[in-house]
Amino acid sequence: MSSVAVLTQESFAEHRSGLVPQQIKVATLNSEEESDPPTYKDAFPPLPEKAACLESAQEPAGAWSNKIRPIKASVITQVFHVPLEERKYKDMNQFGEGEQAKICLEIMQRTGAHLELSLAKDQGLSIMVSGKLDAVMKARKDIVARLQTQASATVPIPKEHHRFVIGKNGEKLQDLELKTATKIQIPRPDDPSNQIKITGTKEGIEKARHEVLLISAEQDKRAVERLEVEKAFHPFIAGPYNRLVGEIMQETGTRINIPPPSVNRTEIVFTGEKEQLAQAVARIKKIYEEKKKKTTTIAVEVKKSQHKYVIGPKGNSLQEILERTGVSVEIPPSDSISETVILRGEPEKLGQALTEVYAKANSFTVSSVSAPSWLHRFIIGKKGQNLAKITQQMPKVHIEFTEGEDKITLEGPTEDVNVAQEQIEGMVKDLINRMDYVEINIDHKFHRHLIGKSGANINRIKDQYKVSVRIPPDSEKSNLIRIEGDPQGVQQAKRELLELASRMENERTKDLIIEQRFHRTIIGQKGERIREIRDKFPEVIINFPDPAQKSEIVQLRGPKNEVEKCTKYMQKMVADLVENSYSISVPIFKQFHKNIIGKGGANIKKIREESNTKIDLPAENSNSETIVITGKRANCEAARSRILSIQKDLANIAEVEVSIPAKLHNSLIGTKGRLIRSIMEECGGVHIHFPVEGSGSDTVVIRGPSSDVEKAKKQLLHLAEEKQTKSFTVDIRAKPEYHKFLIGKGGGKIRKVRDSTGARIIFPGLLLTLCSGKGTPLRETLSKVIEHFVITDSSFLVHPACSQHSDLHSRAPQRLGVDFLCHDLRK
């Protein structure tokens, strides 16, 4: 039972002093400036025995404070409270997690202040901010803006006063925003509006509004008067819902600024014409004096968690009590641990007000239901369906689930809470009887595979067994998986998940190197061949690289034994592809292609089937005579022999082999095959076949009509002999700066040497390489180029090496066949 005590005005004033929120300061001493630390008595002298009214208390307080030796405070700590209804993030799962924790971390990093958060019994948020004054103020402003729901209000003041609110370089506005933790928007100079918008918490808006009005009052050309009125009597002067002060302002035309409850100031500021202002002051004084004489106070204990019900939404409950009973109810600040509520009014009205306070306090209740945390989601239901049934019937009941706690908290009107509690207890009992859960340990590295692509695996298990499966996020690195639901479904889901994990533990990944040219063949048309492989090894996942990547790595993943079997199978397939990819080209005279194809393709079909090769013939309208055979090497050779024999039977086709050194083959073929092609055309279109480059074979095969074959043979041998006898290479050392003398103007000299000797001359660097000609005449030609030095005075030379029109430089090569190179020996 709460105790009721009747207090005198003096003892109540003393009691109130303990309810004012104090700012905690942590002081540090500067050892250089303060040689001796102050004693306890010096720093904290005894308090005065009795607190008088504010006016009289100012002088002793000042005297007391003057005795304190100066201590430089480097760190301050402020504690403030965010009520549940003003919390931006009410649906926290676990304290310290989620968006709220991220925001706090960001604020600490940005401002340098230290934050500590705790959750009060009423689910409000207590925040302790420590650090340097500037850091604390900035952090507090950020916390209010980001963790507390925001409201807004407008304050009209004369346009010409706006600049005083802003201050020099905006300093006053910034300071005001920091102190009140609000955002203050002032219209631009070109905007005719006189409305200043304030955004923040209700308490912050009240403080900011009060300060803005004070600044405006100071600048007002009309009379300004300040009246000291004890804070406790402000509600009587304002009246219920501020109606009384509003009436006085309207009747006298005077602006009256009463500090809001959150601002610890006692003076009321009046602004207006002198005569009307005096009337307003007189009326306020009269109300103040009457209330001081007629009112008394009582203090009662009300649970801290019930204070918000006494206050009501936006303080409406306090205003209702004041309106009906004329009694002011003072509630201690939310960051105070005090549970004492003070009622001030006329004695005969205090009883009725006290009854209403208790009625408001008990009109709402907080209760809890014991329920295992794993059942919470089933109580809530899919998309909150189960819970919605309760809240629709009792919308004023707030139901809160806290993760990790085996309870559900209900808050709201007492009668509604009792009904909701009964329903939830019934749901819990029913769920406990028919639900079960199990926890299994599976290495977290397999979790994403258990979940599957876009959750396919885990969703299938959930739907199939009608269970809920909770897999921790990757960031937690936890192995614990929880399965909840019907007992039978839980066991079945557990068995399947453990089997999947066991399979994955035995899983291996292997990379096969397969030439990209074979990838399409292995996949097959429309994926037919790869589908056959996957059907043969269903537990193995085969991934081919994207063709654009130009990668040769094919990845196999699955159970170790199956991966090994699949690897061997695919390696054999690739070996067969390599073996069957041998290709040879057979030149066949165009007029015989139709005979090789046969009637209705009979001949070529038979050769393909019997040799097991792929044979491609050129299109009929193509000039090409080459038939391409692909397959195993031996099969390709057999197919070629059969095609050549058909040609041989149809015409007088002869075939001879000529031995020519392999080093001469390229020179006989010529650039892009021009030389050998001219011989084949000249000799009636015979086919001349050179061995594959690098094989080391000297054998060249000539095939065609007998007379043409002999003619081609003679030409080929003659050309080979000529190439062999005339091919000579020699290296001559010549400095690069002299190459231009050998080349001559426009390449005239070197061209003359090439034409007369038939040699090819290359100028790579220091070495001059001579090839494709006989060495002796070439050497003799080059040896005729000599060099001679003549020393002459530079004054006789008009820089001939630099002048394009110099007589010496331009005419000497034409008349004398010489070149001049001038050097300045003075350098």
From TrEMBL:
It is found in: Cytoplasm; Nucleus. CDD domains: KH-I_Vigilin_rpt1, KH-I_Vigilin_rpt2, KH-I_Vigilin_rpt3, KH-I_Vigilin_rpt4, KH-I_Vigilin_rpt5, KH-I_Vigilin_rpt6, KH-I_Vigilin_rpt7, KH-I_Vigilin_rpt8. Keywords: Acetylation, Cholesterol metabolism, Cytoplasm, HDL, Lipid metabolism, Lipid transport, Lipoprotein, Nucleus, Phosphoprotein, Repeat, RNA-binding, Steroid metabolism, Sterol metabolism, Transport. Residues 149-217, 221-289, 294-362, 363-429, 434-502, 506-575, 580-648, 652-721, 726-790 form the K Homology domain. The keyword Transcription regulation does not apply. Gene3D superfamilies: K Homology domain, type 1 (3.30.1370.10). It holds the Pfam family KH_1. Its main location: cytoplasm. One of its GO terms (molecular function) is RNA binding. GO terms for cellular component: cytoplasm; high-density lipoprotein particle; nucleus. GO terms for biological process: cholesterol metabolic process; lipid transport. Appears to play a role in cell sterol metabolism. It may function to protect cells from over-accumulation of cholesterol. This is Vigilin. It comes from Rattus norvegicus. The lineage of its organism: Eukaryota, Metazoa, Chordata, Craniata, Vertebrata.
